[in-house]
Design goal:
9 helices, globular, single chain
Length: 198
């Protein structure tokens, strides 16, 4: 089991730390509102990650295989949700508008995971590689894999949010804050487009 766990961590590390919708979302929010403001959304995202991953591992989410149109609908909804978050960031006020603008919430984080079809693909791939045969006991291996996956993502997203938070210090003027909003709003819009087209 120790070898399997080590192999799983090696498998997941590049997937979690490379740029993607989740970590770019948290980097953008931390750059705008500071690292501490990302904690509720991070908690929501990773609680949803744990629940969805465990459900997939235990075989409760097999509808994706039988209903490709459900996957397509999820992909479209997720893309438009990230686009909406990008728009919220772009139209946020300057530095003095931190109170007026809204940092991402616990619910935003959870919805971002639930509407991210890429996460479902990665989770299914992970279980296909690291879960034993179907007839073997599944509960504890699924819960272990789910927990490792969630903690690995939490670490990666926290690193991205810390990096984003350090960028925020470079933009302490209203003009700088406005450009920062535009920059990260554009990044999230590009991620939304990528999610929709791939």
């Amino acid at each position: 089991m120790l070898q399997t766990t080590a192999a799983l961590i090696v498998f997941l590390f590049p997937l979690a730390f490379s740029p993607g919708p989740g970590n770019l979302f948290f980097a953008a929010n931390a750059a705008r509102f500071g690292f501490a403001a990302t904690i509720p959304a991070n908690a929501g995202y990773h609680l949803a990650t744990w629940v969805v991953t465990a459900a997939i591992g235990l075989g409760f989410v097999t509808a994706m295989d039988q209903a490709p149109q459900l996957f397509a609908a999820l992909k479209t909804a997720g893309s438009f949700y990230v686009l909406w978050l990008a728009w919220q960031l772009v139209r946020a006020g300057a530095l003095e508008g931190v109170q007026q603008a809204r940092a991402a919430s616990f619910t935003d984080g959870a919805v971002l995971l639930v509407l991210n079809p890429k996460a479902y693909v990665i989770i299914a791939l992970m279980f296909s590689q690291f879960l034993g045969p179907a007839e073997a006991p599944r509960l504890w291996p699924v819960l272990l894999i789910t927990t490792i996956f969630t903690l690995n993502n939490l670490l990666a997203f926290s690193v991205w949010a810390l990096a984003g938070g350090s960028i925020a210090k470079l933009f302490q003027t209203p003009e700088g804050a406005r450009w920062l909003n535009l920059l990260f709003g554009a990044v999230l819009a590009a991620v939304a487009t990528w999610m929709l087209l791939t």
